[in-house]
Write a structure and sequence with these properties.
The structure is a homodimer.
Chain A: H1 2-7, H2 13-18, H3 25-36, E1 41-42, H4 43-53, H5 59-72, E2 75-79, E3 85-89, E4 100-104, E5 110-113, H6 117-135, E6 138-149
Parallel strand pairs in A: 4-6
Antiparallel strand pairs in A: 1-3, 2-3, 4-5
Helix pairs in contact in A: 3-4, 4-5
The structure holds a DNA duplex.
DNA sequence: CTGTATGCAAACGTTTTGCATGCGA
DNA sequence: TCGCATGCAAAACGTTTGCATACAG
């Protein structure tokens, strides 16, 4: 019952309440923008779309919100080597599934792949456990990237 | 015999000749600097050390050389999220072995790990082959990173 | 009401570019 | 000699910060 009541808000609002963060229009918009796309968006990509929804939003706020969401683990920050960070929502209902990237070193195309993750899961879990123990790390996430040349560029 | 003759030069000079690139003092120094350290060096780290060896070297040349070496696959470029790219020599004789990274999201400490690579090799090879086929990529490299919190920061 | 969140402008640090000069092949 | 490679200065770019204002709780 309590659960249902709390569920009335968007799926991320509980996290905000937990840390005493306020639910504001800019934050709702940034999350909405991220949710609406499957692309790997830079801060300015997010800003442009957010700005269309509400022109009063500022780029600085987009940066600050993305940073906050990254620290909460709600978004994941990537760098594909083109000089700007990219952001993706993770584990959101109806959103993208766990995936990794295939990066063309020539044209910078990014392919998401979600195949072959069963083998990965096994490998990652084992490695993660061993690394945690050996280096005393609390591991919360991982990324696997393959680099090469795409069909056009090879 | 021919092999031995060619071997007289530094291990990377053949690659330069192949693409018609000149062997210059700045380039020798940048490679020497990378070879002398096990750290993850930023362009300006490399510049500072190179500058000590030969003060006439310029930061721009360091950037250009690192970029060239990256494209040749002689160095690998990383971004650990602190705003500057890091560079590491790969596959050089006597240099660092194949490894991956454990990144503390709080203090940005980077741990290199070289353990558990047998399991990795098997997993990577299989996945790489399947991905190559499916997406028509020519895959030349990969990176695995684990994110979390180190002993001090957890 | 109180203090977090915001927008703007300005600052910051890294990386890139234009151009005249230097130097390897 | 010829043209790639260099160094310098300046520009460009993504990102961060200071500060006065707005607004959620």
């Amino acid at each position: 019952m309590v659960y249902l009541l709390r569920k009335r808000g968007a799926w991320w609002q509980d996290r905000f309440h937990d840390i005493g963060a306020r639910i504001t229009a800019p934050r709702e918009i940034v999350i909405a923008v991220l949710q609406e796309t499957d692309d790997h968006m830079s801060a300015s990509d997010v800003y442009i779309r957010a700005h269309k929804i509400n022109p009063s939003i500022g780029l600085t706020t987009v940066y600050r919100t993305l940073d906050m969401l990254t620290q909460l683990g709600i978004v994941q920050k990537f760098d594909f080597g083109d000089g700007k960070a990219r952001f993706e929502l993770v584990n959101n209902p109806g959103g993208k599934k766990h995936h990794h990237h295939l990066i063309c070193m020539n044209c910078k195309t990014i392919v998401d792949y979600t195949e072959f993750l069963d083998e990965e899961l096994e490998f990652i879990n084992k490695t993660q456990e061993k690394l945690s123990k050996k280096y005393n790390f609390k591991i919360t996430d991982h990324a696997i990237s393959f680099y090469g040349y795409c069909d056009q560029c090879r």
